[in-house]
Amino acid sequence: MLQISCPWCGLRPEGEFVCLGEAVPPRPDPAALTAGEWASSLANRANIRGLHAERWWHVRSCGRILTIWRDTVSHAIVPAPASMAAPKATP
Amino acid sequence: MQRFSFLSLARNALSHHEGWHRAWRSPPLQDAYDVVIVGAGGHGLSTAYHLAKEHGVTNVAVIEKGWLGGGNTARNTHTIRANFLRDVSIRFHDVSVKLYEQLSRELNYNILFSQRSMIDLIQSWGKLRDLRRRSLAMALHGPAYDLISVDEVRRRIPAMGDLAGVRLPPLAGMAHPDAAMARHDAVAWSYARAADARGVEIHQHTEVTGFVRDARGRVTGVETSRGTVRAGQVALATAGNTSHVAAKAGLSLPLVTRNLQAFVSEPIKPIIDVIVNCPDVGLYVMQSDKGELVIGGGTDPIPSYRQGCHVATFEDVVASLVELFPRFKALRMLRQWGGAIEFAYDASPIISKTDVEGLLVSTGWYGGFKSIPVGGLTYAHLIATGAPHPLAEAFGLDRFTGLRFLLEAGTVAQR
């Protein structure tokens, strides 16, 4: 069981959250892209083996969507690395 | 290849079984091959076999970072079935079932194939409509998927408890008589042996660490832990790790890797002779030839390469199991494991060339064990001819560009 830190509620058990998967950048303007670029922005994922940023939705509590950094091999949750900024949330 | 038969068994018994050969060679790694297949699991080995058999391409190396058949081929729950919704998926998996039926004979190796039916237990009206639709779609292509009553379900699965007090009372069942199981190790070993006999080389403990590219960006080989190997084409069959390996060639794919766990009980006397699947609660259970109950559920709901136990999913599956089969409360679990499986964006397989010339992928297999024969057949066709096999035309990466998604979900995963 993961314990996830919500900015409002503090450290809460994983069961209160829904995982929304890998954090992806905001959707680009489709008119400015080729069909291939648009399709890959929709479907492709880095699917990193190791540390990645992902979004969780605190659905069974405050409803906030948050970003955490988690290792996909060890499942350890760590503070955001200074060198890597998380992609901004989709508005 | 030393053929197995009653005669060869008797002959070797007379010489104290000292005359058996190794099932496959371990030749030295060469500098170059026509085709390098990355991953010696079921799909990689089946692809190598079909390359040699149907297309005469035998200058092939299958390289594997661990040991042969030690990845998802060893971690699945050996179920073979063809109850899908989309036309292409039904045709594809129906061919796979038919190839499996003949596999022991074709490869001269007993894979312990046991065609024993799958019963889907339906516990909601939505699922009933969903599976009826699936049954009608399948009727167009051949494989049977028949609606049966709860009484018939109870007759065929007498181990189930009293259903009156169940929180989601069963409404009906669906019977899929083609469903089968087979020994997963034997599938990998039989393909390895047959491919080796046709000249394919298998190199275990050889990890791909990078790709060799020419000036135009084309992949012309692989860097491995045992040196550089040049290749006309490099075909990935690296279930679970395809994103990780393809990223070394700068390639991004529409995949997410998740953990799918399973567990087995202590062995007991025969009690279930079908594969029981409960899509509404996320549970399936069958009994292996050893007598162990093989139990599994849906995938863990987070991206993961851990191949471990996600306790919340484990609890869900066990709670569903003891609700329907209260007598199994007395069983102890012998072992638990997880496999890293890849979901494509639309949950259908990908057998395709990529944007990187010379690099091909076969991925998106969750429940890929059932597709090993047909996956190899179609992937080999793509590698050898450059054009997709008629059965797998819809499985190209170009479907994402055209938004021609093949939305398909596993019967257990879909809830």
Please tell me about this protein's structure.
The complex is a heterodimer of chains A (91) and B (415). Chain A is mainly beta and 91 residues long. Chain A has one helix and six strands. Chain A has a four-stranded antiparallel beta sheet, with no helix packed on it. Chain A starts with a strand and ends in a 13-residue tail after the last strand. The model of chain A has no long low-confidence stretch (mean pLDDT 90). With 415 residues, chain B is an alpha+beta fold. Helices cover 29% and strands 24% of the residues of chain B. Chain B contains eleven helices and 19 strands. Chain B has helices spanning 6-14, 42-55, 72-75, 87-107, 125-139, 150-156, 184-197, 242-246, 311-324, 372-385, 398-401, and strands spanning 32-38, 60-63, 79-80, 114-115, 118-122, 146-148, 172-176, 180-181, 201-203, 208-213, 219-224, 227-236, 255-265, 275-278, 283-287, 293-296, 333-344, 350-353, 359-363. In chain B, helix 2 (42-55) packs parallel to helix 7 and helix 4 packs across helix 10 (372-385). The N and C termini of chain B lie far apart (47 Å). Residues 411-415 of chain B have low confidence and may be disordered. The chains are: A mainly beta (91), B alpha+beta (415). Chains A and B meet through strand 3 and helix 1 of A and strand 13 of B.
